Amino acid sequence: MKPALLVLAAGMGSRYGGLKQIDPVGPSGEIILDYSIYDAMKSGFGKVVFVIRHDIEQAFREHIGAKWENKIQVEYAFQELDRLPAPFRVPEERTKPWGTGHAILCASEKISEPFAAINADDFYGRKGYALLADSFAGNTNPAKRHFMVGFTLRNTLSENGSVARGVCCCDPAGFLKEVTERTNIVPDGRGGAFFTEEDGTRVPLTGDEIVSMNMWGFMPGIFDHLSRLFEEFLSRRGKELKSEFYIPSAVASLIHTGDAEVKVMKSSDSWFGVTYREDKPVVQESIARLIDAHVYTSPLE
What mean pLDDT is predicted for residues 163-172? Predict the structure, then answer.
């Protein structure tokens, strides 16, 4: 069974002010998501599931989904505020989505195979998809073992401002122990980086740290765990207006209770994203170099 690619795209319309405003980064009008789907296909993935909202469905199908429907199986799942298990209800005045963990859970009816979960507007490179496909095929503990593709910190920084990254701590066998969120990370100009604590203390980083960029590889059994954890989350924080059910927190909980283990694999590719407007030319130049190196065609084929 070929693995599936789950794309978390419910926030795209909000971030870009409408899907028509999504900026192309490829010379033939490709957006970052086009390269992600292309790389997954080249790595043996057989289906893509987009998690979107109903209000952007038509535009998403026309501007993104239609480009791929004749090349790979395409499915849609919907993340909406009121998609909650009984007896929970959306608090009055809440408009904020329930988070990445809820987004993945919303696709449970569309996926019965191992799957990669990614952000729609992050460029991960083909290596990560190949690592996940190989790991799924060779998984010796499918009931508990999941995967995460980590990236070298220095390959994820922006020269145009600070970033937040989840710094991974692994055991000697490469299994994830915890992810610590660090904010205000900036390059130090020598290949390393530093972040600033709330009290103003600068903490150096080597740049070799492995960080999570939300590129996960899950076995389908994860859905039962997420369903249980989401109900627990709603019981504790479901009446808040801005609480979110984040996938890293859910995974950490499963690791600590022994219900899951996560093998971390390191990608040598650079992660690209447009965190700042000034990042776009860098992404475009990086894509152009990959085309020159014959990693991609232009247009994508």
Answer: 94
